[in-house]
């Protein structure tokens, strides 16, 4: 089980990203627009840099929904390899069959 503080920190980052997504995309559009004057683009760059770092989507870590584990998480299932194997062995994941030969 992962530390509660790590899981909560990641949840806060997800909320911040969701709230700031529109503003970040507007600023990025201004920065990318080469037709705008250089001063306006530079001001947008400064505003983007002043925003909290945790409002960026790249700061979010994929975590297991069950255990909170941050490594070896399958995106499709949102589960770690350990939880996936455990639930798969119990037959709780539809369509997943443990291989045997």
UniProtKB/TrEMBL annotation:
Transmembrane portions of the chain: none
UniProt keyword list: Ribonucleoprotein, Ribosomal protein, RNA-binding, rRNA-binding
GO biological process: translation
A GO cellular component entry from the record: small ribosomal subunit
Pfam families according to UniProt: Ribosomal_S14
GO molecular function: rRNA binding; structural constituent of ribosome
Domain of life: Bacteria
Database matches in Gene3D superfamilies: 1.10.287.1480
Compositional bias segments (type: Basic residues): 12-25
Entry keyword RNA-binding: yes
Positions of the UniProt region annotated as Disordered: 1-25
Bias (Basic and acidic residues): 1-11
NCBIfam families: PRK08881.1
Function recorded in the entry: Binds 16S rRNA, required for the assembly of 30S particles and may also be responsible for determining the conformation of the 16S rRNA at the A site.
Family of this protein: Belongs to the universal ribosomal protein uS14 family.
Subunit and partners: Part of the 30S ribosomal subunit. Contacts proteins S3 and S10.
Family matches, as PANTHER family: 30S RIBOSOMAL PROTEIN S14 (PTHR19836), SMALL RIBOSOMAL SUBUNIT PROTEIN US14M (PTHR19836:SF19)
Name listed for the protein in its UniProt record: Small ribosomal subunit protein uS14
Biological source species: Afipia massiliensis
Classification lineage: Bacteria, Pseudomonadati, Pseudomonadota, Alphaproteobacteria, Hyphomicrobiales
Gene giving rise to this polypeptide: rpsN
């Amino acid at each position: 089980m992962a530390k509660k503080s790590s899981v909560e920190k990641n949840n806060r980052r997800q909320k911040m990203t969701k709230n700031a997504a529109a503003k970040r995309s507007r600023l990025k559009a201004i920065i990318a627009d080469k037709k705008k004057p250089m001063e306006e683009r530079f001001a947008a760059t400064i505003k983007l840099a002043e925003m909290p770092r945790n409002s960026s989507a790249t700061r979010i870590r994929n975590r297991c929904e069950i255990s909170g584990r941050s490594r070896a998480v399958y995106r499709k299932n949102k589960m770690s390899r350990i939880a996936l194997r455990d639930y798969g062995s119990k037959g709780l994941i539809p369509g997943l069959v443990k291989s045997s030969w």
